[in-house]
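Inverse folding, one chain.
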């Protein structure tokens, strides 16, 4: 059984050895906290594809995305089989779009790991760019205004009913509040709420 932890703290002048004791329960608690901390760190650069794996047959958000991913994968392929499967995927994409009541075009540029927990009413402009591991909740619109579409970085959470309009840039790890109307850039880790949206803090 683990009874003690030895921490060696080095200073510039000398090496100091500090010995402290901790029970197995304390060590277990520390390890658990570390695991929880690691699990909640979501990357803004590396897609976590496991977020998109359907968990059951009736999983409209993930099924819609799956059709979109497979369709985009086949776009670079030649041959009659790829062409037929692509047509089948277009039908599947239409089916799940109708079920979800969402409009996410097949040619959208969306990074891996997107979560569409409640996909109903989501509308995304085909020119919009969305980074990896984002979360988009119901009734969100990511669309054009004044001739441009939004660019959303990795790990941005977009609350229910939010609208992001025009050529705005949303920085990584930002959060957009429910029903916010974003018309200006949001900095990295910024929290934007209100109509029009204003920055109320950071997620750090
Ligand atoms: C934006 C959000 C992430 C902020 O969370 P937070 O950092 O914990 O912020 P707080 O709750 O501490 O609120 C801070 C301030 O912003 C205000 N605020 C929070 N969310 C707001 C929103 N969506 N619109 C307007 N103001 C909002 C609060 O009233 C508070 O104002 P105050 O300081 O004057 O009292 C969160 O409120 C939000 O909207 N999340 C989306 C959740 C969602 O869509 N859920 C649907 C699930 S199905």
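Residues assigned per position:
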């Amino acid at each position: 059984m683990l009874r003690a932890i030895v921490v060696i703290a080095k200073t510039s002048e000398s090496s100091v050895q500090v010995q402290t004791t901790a029970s197995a329960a304390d060590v277990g608690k520390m390890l658990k906290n570390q695991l929880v901390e690691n699990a909640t760190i979501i990357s803004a650069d590396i897609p976590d594809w496991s977020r998109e794996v359907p968990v059951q047959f009736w999983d409209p958000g993930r099924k819609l995305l799956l059709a979109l991913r497979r369709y985009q994968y086949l776009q670079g392929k030649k041959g009659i089989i790829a062409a037929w499967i692509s047509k089948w995927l277009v039908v599947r994409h239409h089916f799940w779009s109708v079920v979800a009541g969402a409009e996410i075009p097949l040619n959208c540029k969306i990074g891996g790991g997107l979560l569409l927990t409640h996909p109903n009413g989501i509308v995304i402009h085909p020119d919009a760019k969305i980074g990896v591991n984002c979360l988009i909740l119901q009734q969100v619109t990511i669309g054009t205004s004044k001739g441009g579409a939004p660019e959303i970085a990795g790990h941005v959470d977009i609350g229910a009913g939010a609208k992001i309009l025009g050529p705005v840039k949303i920085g990584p790890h930002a959060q957009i509040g429910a029903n916010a109307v974003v018309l200006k850039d949001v900095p990295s880790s910024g929290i934007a709420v209100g109509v029009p949206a204003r920055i109320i803090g950071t997620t750090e």
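The two ends are 37 Å apart (CA to CA). Residues 80-100 form the longest helix (21 residues).
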